[in-house]
Amino acid sequence: MAKKTPASTIPTTTAKAAKPAAKAAPQAGLKVGARDMPPNPPTAPSKELHVFANPSAARDYVIQFQIPEFTCHCPLTGQPDFAHFTIDMICDELCIELKSLKMYMWSYRDEGAFHEKVTNTILDDIVAAAQPRFARITARWYVRGGIYTNVVVEHRNKGWTPAPRVDLPAANLGTATGLL
Length: 180
What we know:
Layout: E1 51-53, E2 63-73, E3 80-90, E4 94-96, H1 98-106, H2 115-130, E5 134-144, E6 147-156
Antiparallel strand pairs: 1-4, 2-3, 3-5, 5-6
């Protein structure tokens, strides 16, 4: 495999230059201006979910992904189904990388899937990739045949319990001072 070349080291010329810039010899296997393709090109759907180390693994905090343009096809009719997915996660050691999540969700665009099945499969794949302490997916499917469908699925690590909820007093927005 060819060695990757950072874009900043690739020789360039400008239209305003009086003389063409001298070109450095390209590395073996690479053409000038060429780079290795990433494992998931940015415009291709993929079932791979990439992860990275949680920068605050000692703390429970919620990461929420909003995916308002999820698309798949009805496995019976072939007609498109559209949904708004909300993924809430409390990660453990790993977090889901956003670009791979985008490509993963895009990979369902041409697949036939029942609402319940695809929502559960996505949760299973996220749990397999990141092993979160907690994950909840809420899939709000747009109307089909006069019926809206909402599917909510959850995963909770065995033995994990969330910290007690903290309810803060509501701010009175009618006060001039801004004090509670």
